[in-house]
């Protein structure tokens, strides 16, 4: 059976390689909307869903994992930004995803930035994104998703602040996050608070520790009493270790369950990738704007995961994201400390069959290391300092005693 699935995935990969040049003839945003329409159709009835499962799905018991009380059938998730209006949830399980993070959703309707907003960087296996949080707004989307049964798919609700004005106003911005989180209180399985969109008019004001403090106090006061969903914070890719540490201190102080590491990489510091594609692929990108997914982000995000896992002694949940194209990439993030993973760019460059191929590869890698579950692999190649290990042993004893 495993051999047949491998052969099936190989054929689909070849097929995607043949069709990809045609898809890449389209403007990236148009290609995205066309493929989205196909996804909506495939998810619209049991027959097309069943056929899609036959072609793309893969399951294995050792991939299932429980994180913060939520059971996932596998750790592979769709990252925020692909399904900004939450329209494709009925097809993701058939594609093999264990989870999908929807959004980012904002309190107000957001048109996003004007002009061309997506750019393929083929040599760098990356997408430059200049979207600016376009979505239909939390009210309309939450209404549509209320009472939807997501079945075996676990859902993350990614909340960001409306990108509608260049002025930052703290209380107004906090209200915006709270509005989205309140409207989605009964929808999905966890929240992600996105403070790291690189394409907004007023920058990333919640990287400032005082602003973050005020936001997390308000979230704990207003959201915890109405929803028991775990809450994660999504961090930017381009921060110094000191900046990361300050934010992680805030996460620990306000007892969030974890972090999503990381959002897109800004062009500064990655100029060689931009230069390699300029002007052929990036001619219309406003100067200095946009941020990169995919390969340029891979090492950056893994390093942040390694750092945060060690700093927190593995005590908070890490969702790893950035440049995952193969099972080895996925396993590297898991063994660095991530319990769950998100991805987008591999779907664009390698095709949707890669989701089950990554899941299948993970099973093999777990076996090679003698693990019987993802849990056992989390952080296994990122040993904690001795003191932290002793703390963990003590915490385990305390748990048992309790
Ligand atoms: C087209 C596109 C749109 C995105 N929009 C969002 C977004 O709205 N909110 C968010 O938190 N991240 C957004 N991201 C970032 C992704 O969630 C993810 O962090 C990043 O793409 C790295 O993963 P990848 O290398 O697998 O694509 C977007 C990424 C892409 C490619």
Using only CA atoms, what is the Rg? Answer: 20 Å
- The shape is globular
Bound small-molecule species: flavin mononucleotide
Give the low-pLDDT segments.
none
The major sheet is characterized as: 8 strands, parallel, barrel
Q: What is the mean predicted local confidence, pLDDT?
A: 93
The CATH top-level class label: Alpha Beta
**Spatial strand sequence of the major β-sheet:** 3-4-7-8-9-10-12-13
* Share of residues in strands: 5-15%
Number of domains: 1
Kindly name the structural category: alpha/beta
Proportion of helical residues: 40-55%
The count of DSSP E runs of length 2 or more, i.e. the number of strands, is: 13
- Identify the CATH architecture: Alpha-Beta Barrel
Q: Which fold name fills CATH's third level, the topology?
A: TIM Barrel
Distance between the termini: 45 Å
Q: What's the SSE pattern?
A: HHHEEEHEEEHEHEHEHEHEHEHEHHHH
Question: What's the CATH H-level superfamily name?
Answer: Aldolase class I
What is the helix tally?
Answer: 15
């Amino acid at each position: 059976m495993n051999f047949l699935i491998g052969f099936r995935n190989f054929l689909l990969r070849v097929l995607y390689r043949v069709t990809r040049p045609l898809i890449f003839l389209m403007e990236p945003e148009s290609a995205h909307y066309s493929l989205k329409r196909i996804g909506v159709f495939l998810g619209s009835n049991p027959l097309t869903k069943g056929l899609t499962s036959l072609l793309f799905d893969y399951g294995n018991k050792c991939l299932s994992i429980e994180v913060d009380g939520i059971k996932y059938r596998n750790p592979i998730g769709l990252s925020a930004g692909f399904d900004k209006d939450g329209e494709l949830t009925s097809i993701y399980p058939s594609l093999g995803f264990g989870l999908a993070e929807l959004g980012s959703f904002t309190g107000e309707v957001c048109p996003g930035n004007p002009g061309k907003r997506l750019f393929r960087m083929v040599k760098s296996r990356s997408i430059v994104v200049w979207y600016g949080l376009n979505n239909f707004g939390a009210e309309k989307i939450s209404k549509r998703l209320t009472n939807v049964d997501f079945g075996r798919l676990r859902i993350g609700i990614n909340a960001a602040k409306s990108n509608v004005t260049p002025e930052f106003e703290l209380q107004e911005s906090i209200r915006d996050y709270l509005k989205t989180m309140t409207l989605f209180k009964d929808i999905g399985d966890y929240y992600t608070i996105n403070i790291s969109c690189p394409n907004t008019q007023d920058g990333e004001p919640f990287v400032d520790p005082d602003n973050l403090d005020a936001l997390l106090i308000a979230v704990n006061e207003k959201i915890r009493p109405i929803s028991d969903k775990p809450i994660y914070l999504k961090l930017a890719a381009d921060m110094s270790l000191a900046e990361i540490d300050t934010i992680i201190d805030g996460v620990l102080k306000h007892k969030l369950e974890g972090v999503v590491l990381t959002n897109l990489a800004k062009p500064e510091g990655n100029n060689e990738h931009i230069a390699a594609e300029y002007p052929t692929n990036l001619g219309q990108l406003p100067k200095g704007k946009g941020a990169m997914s995919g390969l340029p982000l891979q090492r950056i995000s893994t390093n942040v995961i390694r750092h945060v896992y060690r700093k927190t002694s593995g005590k908070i949940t890490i969702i790893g994201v950035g440049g995952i194209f193969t099972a080895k990439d996925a396993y590297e993030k898991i063994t660095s400390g991530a319990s769950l993973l998100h991805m987008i760019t591999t779907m664009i460059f390698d095709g949707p069959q890669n989701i089950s191929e990554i899941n299948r590869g993970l099973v093999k890698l777990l076996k090679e290391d003698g693990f019987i579950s993802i849990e056992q692999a989390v952080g296994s190649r990122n040993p904690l300092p001795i003191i932290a290990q002793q703390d963990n042993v003590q915490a385990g004893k305390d748990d048992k005693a309790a």
